[in-house]
Amino acid sequence: MEFHVSIFFIIEVIGTVAFASSGAMVAIKQQLDLLGVVVLGVTTAVGGGMLRDIILGNVPPGLFMNPVYVMAAFITVLALFIVVRLNQRILESRYIASYEKMMNIFDAVGLAAFTVTGIDTAVLAGYGDYHFLSVFLGVLTGVGGGVLRDIMAGQTPYILRKHVYASASIAGALCYVFLADWITGDASMIISALLVILIRMLATRYCWNLPTATKKQP
Amino acid sequence: MEFHVSIFFIIEVIGTVAFASSGAMVAIKQQLDLLGVVVLGVTTAVGGGMLRDIILGNVPPGLFMNPVYVMAAFITVLALFIVVRLNQRILESRYIASYEKMMNIFDAVGLAAFTVTGIDTAVLAGYGDYHFLSVFLGVLTGVGGGVLRDIMAGQTPYILRKHVYASASIAGALCYVFLADWITGDASMIISALLVILIRMLATRYCWNLPTATKKQP
Amino acid sequence: MEFHVSIFFIIEVIGTVAFASSGAMVAIKQQLDLLGVVVLGVTTAVGGGMLRDIILGNVPPGLFMNPVYVMAAFITVLALFIVVRLNQRILESRYIASYEKMMNIFDAVGLAAFTVTGIDTAVLAGYGDYHFLSVFLGVLTGVGGGVLRDIMAGQTPYILRKHVYASASIAGALCYVFLADWITGDASMIISALLVILIRMLATRYCWNLPTATKKQP
């Protein structure tokens, strides 16, 4: 993977930590063993980029060529596992709410960073004129790891079910593709990433949901 | 994707509409939100071709290079969503039976078209002599989208469970590969597609099922 | 696929038979039909190698170019289906325990063979210096088919849930990668494969399990 500005590396690491944490928490709640927690955590963090690279023909995918994100995810997952193992009541403690609130912000940062770098990867591979492909790959990089996590955990993917999550990624991706014709790549990247974060924060704060075709039964 | 005869384009669009509709109905019945309905509908319609292209090394897959089928699927899904949203009792009305009967025929047409164009793609890529690969890719193009739909919806894939569905695709694919040595490509394509439709119609009419190893418990 | 020593071909066929058998038994217990049993059995046997080849860019995957393992898996599955169909009480008989004990040994042999040949494929493709990639592809070749089987059967993947299974593959893969710098390829291949088998046998005998983060509730 390439980065226009090195601040994006830091932002991507923050996103990797948040995604790995979300995968590990799903695995811990399902009482999977250490390996299950590692696999689910790391897959959530780097699975989206792997799917993007396979579709783009970047094989072997970048995560294998430069495993820095895999290492970041692995360390996150291991730390979480050890903390929960040493103090099992922590999952019911009042700290968990603050932790999840912080992780939700980190997760929005990660979704934003992965969405724009996903598009960037498509553009650098020479597919900048294929707007549908670029947008799809941005969103896939953002949400693909979570989809793999949910499929492996036997759950209907979170993004299909509720909250404005993939929608935030789609909005940011469309914004990036349209802005790129008018302003510099770096500026449009940053504006689009901020848009993703803004939508996610507002959606969480005001409990936004997309409509369903039929009324929900309780 | 390439087409020998342009009538196949019309037939593929019919199949795309039917497949998108089947994915959208699964999502609507599971009360997924608008995005979930779109993702499941479009994945069902174009997912088989995407898997085929990845296995064949046609990357990025054709659906991204020429998103006409994605658009057809998207419009279908959106129309369905709006109709159900505006008139929720339609799902229990007597129209639904006629609608599902028509969609079942469309679905058979789609299965037939996708099976033969899947093989065609393999042949055009230079793998015509690899009969197992050709047959597999034909069947994958036909049933792969439905398998992705069921995995994402958290169900055991439909094709593994009942009805002569994948079997019809397999029969058509084998027919196409064998006939191709004896008659012209177009003729064997049409005969094989008709065979798929015929088997599906007979299987639905006479409730054909493949045997299971043990007796079904009720 | 390439083999350093032809004994590995025999060992791989043993593994293919065991993996196909495990997939077919899952399908038979879920009362899937003949096609479901074939798909699940064959996918379990060759799915790991297919995923490895896609990630490595070996497309179309080797299993399609030389379908000898697919044939071995198909014959195994068909034989099992016929035996269970003809004598349904066999699933509750005392023979089934001996059969499953034997298949457990075969499965360990398969896991060992697939792990080392998976690494070998990565090395032959020129990625020998990418240790993380090599180890990942070895383990993926070993356990990927089982993961696909479980996802298609709607179960949380076995390797995430219990028993020292993927861990044995990881230990063997790490051993192979480290030994390869010191002794000949063939010797390190055999030692690593034996390590996988040894760990699996000990784990089964002494009911080894990896730790979970929280205490299991019964």
UniProtKB/TrEMBL annotation, chains A, B, C:
<dbReference type="Pfam" id="PF03458">
    <property type="entry name" value="Gly_transporter"/>
</dbReference>
<feature type="transmembrane region" description="Helical">
    <location>
        <begin position="105"/>
        <end position="127"/>
    </location>
</feature>
<feature type="transmembrane region" description="Helical">
    <location>
        <begin position="63"/>
        <end position="84"/>
    </location>
</feature>
<feature type="transmembrane region" description="Helical">
    <location>
        <begin position="6"/>
        <end position="27"/>
    </location>
</feature>
<comment type="similarity">
    <text>Belongs to the UPF0126 family.</text>
</comment>
<keyword id="KW-0472">Membrane</keyword>
<feature type="transmembrane region" description="Helical">
    <location>
        <begin position="34"/>
        <end position="51"/>
    </location>
</feature>
<feature type="transmembrane region" description="Helical">
    <location>
        <begin position="164"/>
        <end position="183"/>
    </location>
</feature>
<protein>
    <submittedName>
        <fullName>Trimeric intracellular cation channel family protein</fullName>
    </submittedName>
</protein>
<feature type="domain" description="Glycine transporter">
    <location>
        <begin position="105"/>
        <end position="180"/>
    </location>
</feature>
<keyword id="KW-0812">Transmembrane</keyword>
<keyword id="KW-1003">Cell membrane</keyword>
<feature type="domain" description="Glycine transporter">
    <location>
        <begin position="10"/>
        <end position="83"/>
    </location>
</feature>
<dbReference type="InterPro" id="IPR005115">
    <property type="entry name" value="Gly_transporter"/>
</dbReference>
<feature type="transmembrane region" description="Helical">
    <location>
        <begin position="189"/>
        <end position="208"/>
    </location>
</feature>
<feature type="transmembrane region" description="Helical">
    <location>
        <begin position="133"/>
        <end position="152"/>
    </location>
</feature>
<keyword id="KW-1133">Transmembrane helix</keyword>
